[in-house]
């Protein structure tokens, strides 16, 4: 009797059983291991650092607890954090709104009239998105060059004074936004194109039968049915704009150009962490930036769902 | 029989010598163009120490310093010898990850008097640790285009006597030749705040960590005022350093003067504007100001594996006269070693500067340069001050107000 009782557990521990039970976990473990090391750990570590004063040169363990000091420092009225947040929002608006105003009609036109070339268009439109940021920055820095650039050369041809595209603080946000716009307008167009393809042809046919013209079709069919894709694209633009780093960093160097007019929050965080070696303050600002992105995404969400109720 | 005996003997000898001289690989992390100097000196080192192989790990300037910061934070992946540029040496000195070379077995005190004085101070932390040996320095100097000044009928010495006469001469140059005085008005600010410091003062903080920036500090008020005068008189070309416009201005002579380290001569000659050979001259900075402009150091991380050889290598790079001269001839790295500065190459004329004996002038400038105290919040202060200067130059902000705002902002960050 006792023998029969102990036998089954021994069988359960056999190699085959073990393999069957644990093999799936072993197979999916690489993701979780990588996530733990490169995802979760930095996240928690930066939360820890946000409440400490720490220079990496002091080595691990030499941190000093300062409570909420890093947060109150960043939220102080005079702090650079606000200025960089303002820069980021302004460049985000300048590049984000035109992106969608151009991408949406463009996608509609390609979808409606140029369907034969859709593949080719998608490829061309997608190219800026996958181009290396360093290459983009070099090309645009050459275009923007005050005395040697083609933009000012063209202005000269029609008798206009040269503009200090990357030197005049009031001009810098526009110059950076133009590059960001150029880079992401195609990406949004491709997003909208795929959204348009999901809309049934029947609806358009019915509208044609009812005598609707192109504008009416766009306004009353395409736009409402494209709402989920618009929500998605808007969210991506908000998140991307708030984290803007590569383009201004490559165009303007780490200082953010003349007077720091192109210094985005992400660049300021990078400088604070790796140039000023103030890891705690940089971590606190990262979490504040996260909070700002979260709030704006929620606003976007509310805006879209409220519009839905009205309909 | 004879042959095999000889073979056995040779084998025994080889084995013996291999045991006597243990093979060592020394990791040296550096940035351009210091890596070029190391490569140039390496043959001499290998001849002296054939058993010590140098593994040179060179990265771009910012990448190198970021990598070293991370390595010091975690104590992982540290080289045996770490090169540090002057912009980082203050921060690295305040950290705890580098060997104090004052202590045994290094006892670097005996070598300090062999080196240019102000660089030793740069590598010394506030609590007196000496964390790196200086290898090259950048004496501050005043470059000018002789052809442009001649055309305008301006005597370069008159530009040297005071900042006011520098600006007056600039107006004449602009009027007669159309050339700008300086690349950007901010350059004038950057040199004025670096010169004529009192002992114990850094640029932004003094040695007691007291913030010096503010509307009551004459040095900053004067620097901002002079920059504004240059801008208002239309004398600056409004172009940043290390841009295509900057190189173009050097090539075409559209900017008449440039303040920089002595190393700029090498850069102009090698790649920026080689065709302007013979058109440039140098003199000391206005108002007998002396300033250091660049410089490099070697340090030993506390967790390095081969500290003994690392120190031998550093001594070979820094206090060996021939190495210092090789580096100078290779890429113009101005020796920190005083005896190397007495070498005959220093009294030779510089062809690029129209045969001027400029190196003697730079050597004198280096000996007259006073130590500048560094602070770990220098980079914070610099960024905030530059932003406020732009507000003054571009938006007409009141100078006293700008300096008061800068003071308030820096004070919050420097904790």
List the defining traits of the structure above:
heterodimer; A: about 300 residues; mainly alpha; two-stranded antiparallel sheet; 14 helices; globular; B: about 425 residues; alpha+beta; eight-stranded mixed beta sheet
- What is the rounded Rg of chain A? 27 Å
Q: Please tally the helical runs of chain B, counting DSSP H or I stretches of 4 or more residues.
A: 18
Low-confidence stretches of chain B: 12-20
Query: What is the mean predicted local confidence, pLDDT of chain B?
Result: 90
Q: What low-confidence regions of chain A span 5 or more consecutive residues with pLDDT below 50? A: none
Main beta sheet of chain A: 2 strands, antiparallel
- Helical/strand content category of chain A: mainly alpha
* Helix/strand order of chain A, N-terminal first: HHEEHHHHHHHHHHHH
Mean pLDDT of chain A: 88
Distance between the termini of chain A: 72 Å
Fraction of residues in helix of chain B: 40-55%
- List the helices and strands of chain B in order: HEHEHEHHHEHHHHHHEHEEHHEHHH
* Strands in their spatial order, largest beta sheet of chain A: 1-2
Q: Span between N and C termini of chain B? A: 81 Å
Strand content of chain A: under 5%
Shape of chain B: globular
**Largest interface, Cβ cutoff 8 Å:** A-B, 36 and 38 residues
Using DSSP, what is the number of strands of chain A?
Answer: 2
Task: Write up what this structure looks like.
- The complex is a heterodimer of chains A (311) and B (415).
- With 311 residues, chain A is an all-alpha fold.
- Helix content of chain A is 75%, strand content 1%.
- Chain A has helices at 2-12, 15-49, 69-75, 80-113, 118-130, 133-144, 150-157, 172-197, 201-209, 214-225, 227-242, 246-252, 265-274, 279-310; strands at residues 52-53, 64-65.
- Chain A is globular.
- The N and C termini of chain A lie far apart (72 Å).
- In chain A, 32% of the residues are buried.
- By secondary structure, chain B is α+β, with helices and mostly antiparallel strands.
- In chain B, strand 1, helix 2 (34-48) and strand 2 form a beta-alpha-beta unit.
- In chain B, helix 7 crosses helix 9.
- The longest helix of chain B has 19 residues, at 2-20.
């Amino acid at each position: 009797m006792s023998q029969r009782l102990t036998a089954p557990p021994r069988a359960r521990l056999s190699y085959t059983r073990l393999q069957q039970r644990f093999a799936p976990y072993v197979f999916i473990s690489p993701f979780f291991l990588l996530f733990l090391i490169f995802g979760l750990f930095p996240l928690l570590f930066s939360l820890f650092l946000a409440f400490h004063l720490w220079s990496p040169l002091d080595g691990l363990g030499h941190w000093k607890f300062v409570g909420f000091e890093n947060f109150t420092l960043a939220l102080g009225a005079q702090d650079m954090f606000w200025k960089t947040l303002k820069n980021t929002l302004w460049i985000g608006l300048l590049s984000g709104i035109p992106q969608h105003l151009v991408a949406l009609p463009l996608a509609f036109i390609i979808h409606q009239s140029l369907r034969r070339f859709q593949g080719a268009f998608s490829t061309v439109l997608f190219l800026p998105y996958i181009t290396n940021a360093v290459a983009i920055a070099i090309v645009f820095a050459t275009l923007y060059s005050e005395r040697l650039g083609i933009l000012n050369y063209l202005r000269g041809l029609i008798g206009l004074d040269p503009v200090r595209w990357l030197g005049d603080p009031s001009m810098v946000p526009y110059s950076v936004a133009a590059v960001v716009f150029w880079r992401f307008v195609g990406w949004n167009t491709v997003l909208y194109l795929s959204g348009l393809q999901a809309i049934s042809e029947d609806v358009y046919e019915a509208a044609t039968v009812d005598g609707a013209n192109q504008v009416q079709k766009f306004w009353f069919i395409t736009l409402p049915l494209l709402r989920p894709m618009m929500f998605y694209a808007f969210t991506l633009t908000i998140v991307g704009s708030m984290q803007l780093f590569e383009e201004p960093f490559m165009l303007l160097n780490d200082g953010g150009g003349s007077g720091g007019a192109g210094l985005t929050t992400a660049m300021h965080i990078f400088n604070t962490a790796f140039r000023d070696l103030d890891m705690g303050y940089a971590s606190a600002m990262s979490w504040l930036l996260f909070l700002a992105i979260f709030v704006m995404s929620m606003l976007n969400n509310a805006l879209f769902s409220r519009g839905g109720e009205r309909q | 029989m004879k042959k095999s005996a000889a073979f056995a003997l040779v084998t025994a000898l080889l084995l013996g010598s291999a045991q006597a001289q243990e093979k060592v690989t020394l990791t040296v992390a550096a940035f351009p163009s210091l890596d070029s100097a190391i490569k140039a000196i390496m043959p001499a080192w290998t001849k002296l120490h054939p058993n010590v192989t140098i593994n040179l790990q060179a990265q771009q300037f910012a990448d190198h310093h970021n990598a070293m910061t991370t390595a010091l934070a975690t104590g992982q992946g540290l080289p045996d010898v770490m090169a540090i540029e002057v912009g980082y040496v203050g921060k690295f000195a305040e950290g705890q990850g580098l060997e104090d070379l004052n202590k045994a077995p290094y006892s670097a005190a005996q070598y300090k008097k062999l080196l240019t004085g102000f660089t030793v101070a740069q590598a010394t932390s506030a609590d007196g640790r000496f964390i790196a040996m200086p290898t090259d320095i950048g004496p501050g100097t005043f470059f000018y285009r002789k052809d442009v000044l001649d055309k305008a009928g301006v005597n370069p010495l008159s530009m040297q006597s005071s900042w006011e006469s520098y600006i007056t001469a600039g107006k004449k140059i602009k009027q007669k030749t159309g050339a700008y005085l300086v690349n950007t008005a901010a350059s004038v600010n950057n040199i004025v705040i670096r010169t004529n410091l009192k002992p114990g003062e850094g640029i932004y903080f003094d040695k007691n960590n007291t913030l010096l920036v503010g509307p009551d500090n004459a040095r900053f008020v004067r620097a901002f005022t002079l920059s504004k005068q240059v801008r208002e008189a239309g004398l600056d070309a409004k172009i940043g350093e290390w841009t295509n416009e900057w190189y173009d201005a050097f090539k075409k002579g559209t900017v008449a003067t440039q303040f920089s380290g002595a190393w700029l001569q090498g850069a102009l000659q090698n790649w920026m504007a080689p065709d302007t050979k013979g058109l440039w001259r140098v003199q000391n900075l206005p108002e007998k100001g002396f300033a250091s402009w660049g410089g490099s150091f070697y340090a030993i991380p506390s967790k390095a594996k081969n500290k003994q050889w690392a120190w031998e290598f550093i001594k070979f790079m820094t206090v060996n006269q021939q190495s210092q001269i090789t580096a100078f001839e290779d890429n113009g790295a101005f020796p920190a070693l005083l005896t190397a500065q007495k070498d005959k190459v220093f009294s030779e004329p510089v062809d690029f500067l129209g045969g001027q004996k400029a190196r003697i002038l730079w050597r004198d400038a280096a000996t007259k340069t006073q130590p500048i105290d560094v602070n770990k919040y220098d980079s914070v202060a610099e960024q905030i001050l530059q932003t406020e200067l732009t507000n003054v130059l571009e938006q007409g902000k009141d100078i006293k107000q700008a300096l008061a705002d800068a003071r308030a902002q820096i004070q919050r960050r420097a904790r």
